[in-house]
Design a protein that fits this description.
Elements lengths: L1 H22 L3 E7 L5 H9 L3 H4 L1 E4 L5 E5 L2 E7 L8 H20 L9 E7 L7 H14 L6 E6 L4 H12 L7 E4 L5 E2 L5 E2 L4 H11 L2 H10 L4 H22 L1 E3 L10 H13 L6 H20 L4 H5 L12 E3 H24 L4 H4 L2 H27 L1
Parallel strand pairs: 1-4, 1-5, 5-6, 6-7
Antiparallel strand pairs: 2-3, 3-4, 8-9, 10-11
Helix pairs in contact: 1-10, 1-11, 4-5, 7-8, 9-10, 9-13, 10-13, 11-13, 11-15, 13-15
């Protein structure tokens, strides 16, 4: 029976996650910069190493290509051969960029707007040419009514010192940009034994999450692979909302069978967390995760033999005999379930836990301990709120 209920929960979560992804508005980013500055490497480091390689490109102008991937709410407007040599090339390309951005905002197609521009400069070149500054100023002047933020990304920043020097040079131009971020998008081998560690991608992701329109921020957090803290913050906000909703409900039925039964709001919470982490919506994988959380932890909290002891952890929780629990208890349980799920996904994301670990006796025991600790934390928080 427990396995059947877990399968039902997994099916419902998968359905909800798919619905969450389908509702995500598309994120549209324009990439600018000279040839060879590492734009593809940069994008793959932010969103996953197969995006550019597996995406489908469609020419928008003679120099601009729109790259998309099926069932992935991201569109890249790329200029694969940007060269700013001669007045004609300068004017022609800037006009194309301006026209594309203007059309995206005025074509009456919802969600077609360009949300930000990433302008890439190769740090190793040690140069930011006057024509590049003029190029950005001309574009910014023509599109200032559309509120499209620009970030200058100093790519291939092997030397942090060189990157800081180039950043200071560009800052003196007083360009209308939101930020200048040095990055080394992937580890760079120096010798067989030594390599320069990648850096800056998490900082770039943080800045992007802040400057993107609020309506598109959840899309970015779900898609990005560079900054785990963004996902954690979003997931914990989802848990807080769910726990608050559970508390407001006042009381929910408390199952006393030895199986985990989740209310719809808790399913929605787990689906929201899954979406925030950009977790693959694969039934087999999700079965492993869910059975390792609600299959083990859920039985711990809702099982017939331990529910009475659990309620003792939470002031004013009530009793199992009445068949219901208080809003504070519902909030504590919801918080604990969400927090344990987040902790598991964090460890999986970091490579500290494998999916197969969840189904072992050791893995289940670890999850149960995590759940009890989370219940206590949620109870303390509920008690503090009540006293306040």
């Amino acid at each position: 029976m427990g396995e059947l209920m877990t399968r039902d929960v997994v099916d419902r979560i998968i359905s909800t996650v798919k619905n969450e992804f389908e509702k995500l508005p598309k994120l549209n980013i324009m990439l600018l910069g000279k040839t060879g500055v590492g734009k593809s490497t940069l994008i793959n480091s932010i969103f996953g190493d197969s995006l550019v390689r597996t995406g489908i490109g469609k020419p928008v102008t003679s120099d601009i290509v729109r790259v998309e991937k099926k069932d992935f709410p991201l569109a890249l407007y790329d200029t694969p051969g940007l060269e700013l040599k001669g007045d004609n090339a300068f004017v022609s390309l800037s006009d194309q960029v301006i026209n594309v951005i203007t059309e995206c905002f005025t074509d009456d197609i919802e969600g077609n707007e360009i949300h930000c521009i990433l302008y890439c400069v190769n740090t190793a070149s040690h140069r930011f040419e006057p024509s590049e500054g003029a190029f950005l100023k001309r574009i910014a002047d023509k599109i200032k009514g559309y509120n499209v933020p620009v970030i200058i990304v100093l790519t291939q920043a092997f030397s942090r010192k060189d990157a800081e020097e180039l950043k200071r040079v560009i800052e003196q131009e007083n360009l209308p940009v939101s930020a200048i971020i040095p990055v080394l998008a992937q580890d760079y081998p120096i010798s067989d034994e030594l390599s320069k560690r990648a850096y800056g991608i998490d900082d770039l992701a943080e800045i992007m999450s802040q400057i993107l329109p609020e309506a598109i921020q959840n899309t970015f957090i779900a898609l990005e692979k560079a900054n785990l803290n963004l996902k954690i913050r979003r997931a914990r906000a989802i848990v807080t909302t769910a726990a608050t909703g559970a508390a407001a409900a006042g009381a929910i039925p408390l199952p006393v069978a030895d199986a985990a039964v989740l209310v719809p709001d808790q399913i929605a919470m787990l689906a929201g967390i899954t979406a925030a982490f950009g977790f693959p919506v694969d039934k087999g994988t999700l079965m492993t995760v869910i059975s390792g959380t609600i299959g083990s932890a859920g039985a711990t909290v809702l099982g017939r033999t331990v529910v009475s002891n659990l309620l003792k952890l939470i002031p004013g929780a009530g009793s199992a005999a009445g068949g219901v629990i208080s809003g504070a208890t519902a909030a504590a349980i919801t918080f604990a379930l969400g927090e344990v799920y987040i902790q598991i996904l964090i460890q999986v994301s970091k490579g500290e836990m494998n999916m197969t670990d969840l189904s072992t006796d050791e893995g289940r025991e670890k999850i149960s301990k995590m759940f009890v600790e989370a219940i206590k934390l949620g109870a303390r928080a509920a008690k503090k709120n009540n006293e306040g």
